[in-house]
Amino acid sequence: MTSSRRNHARTLGLIVAAGIFLLAPIVRAGENESTDLDDLASWMAGTFSSAVQAAEDPDFFAVSLHMAPIWTDRSDGRWLYLEQAVSEEPHRPYRQRVFRLVELVPGLFETQVFTLPDPGAVIGVWISDDPLAELSPDDLEERDGCAILLRRRGDSFIGSTLASLCAGTLRGAAYATSEVIVTPDGIVSWDRGFADDGSQVWGAVKGGYVFDRIVADDPASESESVSETETAAEAETESGTESGAETESDGDSDSEGNTEGSGEVMSETALQPE
């Protein structure tokens, strides 16, 4: 992305952020701060699966998503570790991230996105009692421009990345966008990549991936339950997975193989686990 284009995108992002803030309802400082942030972190944590959606629509893969709280003694936000994999290859995740959740102002939340120094070394750590205990925020690299801003709307948090700030080159993209809805029952995530001219080059076309919550509190039960659900979905969607396309969540480059998506964007892709 050129310097002038990035500056323009950043300006657009600031305008969007200002609009979100100005449209937010007036809330006294501290009135719902801890409760809302705790809700957001709690609803994002757990094991989720898009198996039901995949069984109903062959343009979507059955994907498992795990998010586990980490570094719970820290006071600089709520930290989560994310691991995401196509159900057929649960031990080959195509996306591993760390999220930091903070409340910027009352009613406005930010999810910062970080990459890990050695993702392969921590595969499956979400199931442990103290994930990423050997790491600290200093070991991570932030995905500049890829943070998601969210606002609470009743029993949901709704948000997105800002404008075209999240740079990425996968499949010829110039930038990536993410739109997210978080509820107590699951997460809807719509990740797409766009070329400089605004045309979509990867990602689902119909809408976001619908991740249903499996189990929230018992990691061992989560692992068993999600495996059973995904096995059933795989049988129902075997003929449909051939039309899937790889996607990128937060501006990753081609060096990270991402695998979810929709055949409406690309008809020929290979699954490329990281």
Q: How many runs of DSSP E, i.e. beta strands?
A: 12
Distance between the ends? 24 Å
Give the CATH level 1 class. Answer: Mainly Beta
CATH T-level topology: Lipocalin
Number of structural domains: 1
Main sheet? 10 strands, antiparallel, barrel
Q: How helical, in percent, are the residues?
A: 10-25%
Strand order of the largest sheet: 1-2-3-4-5-7-8-9-10-12
* Helical/strand content category: alpha+beta
Summarize model confidence as the mean pLDDT.
77
CATH architecture: Beta Barrel
Our count of helices gives: 4
Q: From the alpha-carbon coordinates, what is the Rg to the nearest angstrom?
A: 18 Å
| CATH superfamily annotation | CpcT/CpeT domain
Contiguous uncertain segments of 5+ residues = 1-12, 14-18, 20-33, 216-249, 251-274
Which overall shape is indicated by the principal axes computed on the Cα atoms? globular
